[in-house]
Design brief:
Distance between the termini of chain A: 21 Å
Strand order of the largest sheet of chain A: 6-5-4-3-2-1-18
Structural class of chain A: alpha/beta
Shape of chain A: globular
Strand content of chain A: 25-35%
Radius of gyration of chain A: 22 Å
Order of helices and strands of chain A: EEEHEHHEHEEEEEHHEEHEEHEHHEHEE
Oligomer: homodimer
Chain lengths: 308, 308
């Protein structure tokens, strides 16, 4: 059961060194979620064999071009391909005007329903859920209204102990209720659920935080996530520039990761001044050792945690 | 003195086989002109070493996404790079609303003046000129208002015959007038210009025709150009589809090239159904032999014609 993130673009505003602007695809059990959609995203999808037809939800963090300028092209391509499945589009207030104005002027006729969902960039709220996951917004601090997104699997059913089912001769029609936590009534004798089951698989989670300046308020929201993507536009020697442009340094991202006790930190949104990204890894790792450099085409999987 | 076209994107609407949507750069004596700007154009510019800072004029044919969705990203990058030189932007009526709406919603602050020039897509008119060239619109027929562009060098000065200048002891202060066609007055005796000069270098020209269905009206406008780019979205076996979507077939483009007696035809805007483009070349060449397949990164130069 997959839980894996593919980076499609990892550079900041100006594309450089063959690095594209921001876009990511999160695959949770074959449900694909697109997170941000910089220019060239659909081309990157082809390059990295992403099945874009399986994306039904798109989450946009903010309206800066390097996070959104690939969106209209992708929607056009869906329409040209005759897509009929609806798309849910999540993002800050102006996203709808941006998309609808472009599509109106291009006189493109959509073949599928496009549902806009305005995300409140000031509060941590539930923005989407289906049978597998919930997605909450993460209020970030950038030059324009910006939100991160927290993806969390819903609780798995408890694991049945087959030998106990056999021992008590429990009919299979009761299994679903037992997996959901019910005790079993064996002709008046209650067999507690704890005797019949083992703990469920732990749920997995991913937090996407870009673009943002250092913001400790997000720590309680992203506490303990398995995977944290936090932008690292600059090295800490450029702290003043990071503050002025409301971005983060690699050291700051690592401080957030450490305080939130996340499993792994993925860096990204690199300034074009850094051709070799090893400097980013070194700086972040000094604060938070389980840091990996986010690179285009790389896939970051979350395995189920080992039980203690 | 260069006159060369670089193809940055040659595919039609949906990017495929690593082929990008339409964009071209025309270099006339180190003046760079961008023609259309599909998604990913700025990335293609880096890949093919185009000095984008030298582009001061951008010509857009129509508002379909595959011709325009890279424009806002490029303008953003200019602003982020601190550009101060103005940009002149030419295109159909809605181009200004498309660009200004996107830039307003992104809250990007431009660092350079951006001048919009609305092009009448119904008439063949002068839309731009500088000391080197003129650019005229070419009315095309597509699903939305669309214009092509005809780039022509202005006349070169006549070539001086140095031996005649020596013979008549003509002071250098008269040379400019003679190069422009003036006779020389040698103390009352008129020496005709024809004795003092040789013909000027012939001017060179390029016509860009995309997107359009077969339209014979353009033939007088593009008559005798050195280089013609004419879209070839489909093979002729898809004529019905070409008519319905208001595109051209390879055979039709070649018929236009032949009737207009152009020097060379460059094909492009290929449907994603054609992975191998040799079929396009074969079909067009049967009608017009000097056909070359437009491919990304290829440079098509126009040399000065041999004098007869």
């Amino acid at each position: 059961m997959r839980f894996e993130l593919t980076i499609l673009g990892c550079n900041s505003a100006i594309p450089a060194y063959d690095r594209n602007p921001t876009a990511q695809v999160l695959n949770i059990q074959e449900n694909l979620f697109l997170i941000d959609c910089g220019e060239g995203t659909q081309i990157q999808m082809s390059k990295f064999h992403i099945k874009r037809g399986k994306i039904n939800q798109i989450f946009i963090s903010h309206l800066h071009g390097d996070h959104v300028l690939g969106l209209v092209g992708l929607l056009n391509s869906y329409a040209l391909g005759g897509r009929t499945t609806p798309i849910d589009l999540f993002g800050p207030k102006d996203l709808e005007e941006f998309v609808t104005t472009s599509m109106r002027l291009m006189q493109n006729h959509s073949t599928f329903p496009l549902h806009f969902h305005e995300v409140d960039t000031e509060h941590n709220q539930l923005v989407f859920e289906n049978n597998l996951i919930t997605v909450h917004s993460i209020p970030l601090k950038h030059r324009i209204p910006t939100t991160g997104y927290l993806f969390k699997e819903k609780a798995y059913p408890l694991n049945i102990r087959p030998e106990k089912i056999t021992e008590h001769q429990i009919h299979y029609s009761h299994i679903k209720a037992i997996k959901a936590g019910a005790d079993y009534n064996d002709n008046g004798r209650i067999i507690p659920n704890a005797e019949l089951t083992l703990p469920a698989m732990p749920t997995r989670s991913y937090a996407y935080c870009s673009d943002t300046m250092y913001k400790e308020d997000i720590i309680p929201i992203i506490k303990g996530v398995d995977l944290l993507y936090h932008e690292t536009t600059f090295l800490h020697e450029e702290l003043e520039l990071a503050i002025r442009t409301q971005h983060s340094t690699a050291r700051q991202a690592a401080q957030i990761a450490q305080q939130a006790k996340v499993g792994k930190l993925i860096t990204g949104h690199y300034s074009s001044r850094y051709e070799d990204l090893e400097v980013v890894r070194v700086e972040a790792s000094q604060v938070f050792s389980n840091t990996v450099i986010g690179k285009e085409g790389e896939v970051y999987s979350v395995a189920f945690k080992q039980k203690n």
